[in-house]
Amino acid sequence: MTPLSSRQAVSASDDSAKGQIRQSNEALILEAAERVFAGAGFGGATMAAIAESSGLPKANLHYYFGSKQELYRAVLARTLQDWLEPTLGIVPEADPRTAIERYIRDKMALSARRPHASKVFANELLHGAPVVKTLLQTELRSLVRTKAAVIDGWIAQGKMAAVDSVHLFFTIWAATQTYADFDVQVCAVLERSGLKAKDHQRATEHVVSLLLRGCGLSA
Length: 219
What we know:
Blueprint: H1 6-44, H2 47-54, H3 58-65, H4 68-84, H5 96-113, H6 115-126, H7 133-156, H8 165-181, H9 183-190, H10 197-214
Helix pairs in contact: 1-2, 1-4, 1-6, 2-3, 4-6, 5-8, 5-10, 6-8, 8-10
C-alpha cells in the first residue's frame, strides 16, 4: 500500500473534520426541529424558529436540508429508524424474554429521552400520515411481519405464551409512547409539573413487567 503524501493526509484530515462538523450540525438541527414541530405543528413551525432553537444560522438549515418540508421528512424518518433499530435483537436464536424486554426498555428510554420526536410522529399519524404513509406501508409493514414471524416461531416452540404477534407490537408502541405523547395527562394524574427520571423508571418497570407476564415470560 502506498503511503499517503503530506498533502493527501492533510486533505483526508480536513474531510474528516468537515464530516464531523456536518454530523454535529445536522444533529443540532434535527433536535431543534423536533422541539419546534412538536410545539407548533408543521404549519406553525418556521425555519427561523428552528434556527433560533438550534443556535445555528438559518442559512445552515437550508444548506443541510433545503426546505422545511425536507427537514420535516428527515425528522420523521430519523424517529422511525430509531424506534425500529431495537427490533434487531428479535431474531430466532435469541432468548424471547431478553429480546422482548430489551425492546420495551429501549422504546421507553426513547420516549423519555426524545418526547418531542414521538409527538411529531403522533401528530403526523393523526393527520393521516401524508408524508410517511408509504414508509409505513412498505418498510414498517415488512419489518413487523418479519419480527412477528420470529415471535410466532417462539410460540410454536413453547418458549412463550400464545399471543397475537402483530398486535403485540401495537401494544408495545402504545404503552411506551404514551409517556411522551400524553405526558400532560400522566403528569396531571401524578401531580407533576414534568416527568422525572424516577417517574420514567417506575413506568418502565411497570410496562416491562406487565407485558412480559402477558407473554408468559415473567421471571
